Amino acid sequence: MSCSIKNAVQRRFVINCWIGAALVVVLSAATALAVRVAHLHGPLVYPVAVLPALPIIWVLFETGRYLAEEKDEFVRNILVQCLLGGIGGTLALTTVWGNLEHFAGVPRLDPILVYAIFWFFAALTYPVVYRRYR
Amino acid sequence: MEDRMLFILMPLVLAVFVLAVWGFGYHHLHPTGIVACLLAILVALPNVALIVIFGFYLSEEKDEFQRNLLVQSLLWAIGATLTLITFWGVLVTFEVVQSRSLVWVFPLFCLFMAIAKFMVRLRYR
To answer: pLDDT tens for residues B37-63?
Structure first.
């Protein structure tokens, strides 16, 4: 997918996003393995638990860098709207689910899923925003 | 237009949040089934409206500098919220801390947004 992108800044951003997503998976698995194998417990888990969150910070840093370097205002605007769609959908879902936990007794949603939910809604917003400008 | 809508929506968001915490959090109300789902959606609606207004404001703002400040704040807020939630999620998975309701994600995002906006403005002063 990234090979078809001619814009170098865009290509780097897409590649970095995929690397970031892969790193989240790898570091989550590595963290789980480390905790299970080394039998970590209590405060020792805290520094290890930071690991899966690091690629998230990196991807969002890359998003900021891409937005600063992208010359095409239209493309930049579409990405910002997708991010808004992502966070809007995430906040709506977490609020609805949180309230359902309180008064309908639905099972607790794993907080780790929130990052994936954010990108799911961001991706879902893209065709809607794109179609609007066609 | 957005300012006026925000003026109405911000107190509404706060009122709805307090009502949800007081009413549902402490089980003074016991809705079930469809009513519970509808109430949960109702509680989330002002939050969605707030984000939609934010989007309208961004698309209508002519001053690129102001728009840039908001986008930077938004990015920092998203980053901080997702990082903290993921960190919390890992701790919950390893049973170091107890799972908390996801209702707190929205207030957390608003808090980070306010801090980020202040910091970004401070940077450009």
So the answer is: 777 777 778 778 878 888 888 878 888
Determine the average pLDDT of the residues in B12-27: 67
User: Which sequence spans correspond to the domains of chain B?
Assistant: 1-60, 62-125
A41: which chain B residues are within 8 Å (Cβ-Cβ)? Answer: 94, 96
| CB pair distance less than 8 Å for A56 and B83 | yes
Residue A131 buriedness (CB in 10 A; 0-12 / 13-18 / 19+) = exposed
Q: Name the residue facing B47 among A56, A60, A95 (closest C-beta).
A: A95
Contacts of B43 (CB under 8 A, 6+ apart): A95, A96, A99, B16, B17, B19, B20
B5 versus A127: the higher-pLDDT residue is A127
Who among B44, B85, B86 is closest to A92 (CB)?
B44
ipTM of the complex in this document: 0.81
Q: Is A52 on the interface with B (CB under 8 A)?
A: yes
Q: Which residue in the block uniquely carries the two structure tokens 């969605």?
A: B48
- The pTM for the full model equals 0.80
Which pair of structure tokens corresponds to residue A133?
Answer: 């400008």
Closest approach of chain A CAs to the CA of B95, in angstroms? 9
Contacts (Cβ under 8 Å, ≥6 apart) of B65 = B124
How many CB pairs lie under 8 A apart between chains A and B? 169
* Helix (H) / strand (E) containing A91: helix A73-103
A8: contact with B, CB 8 A cutoff: no
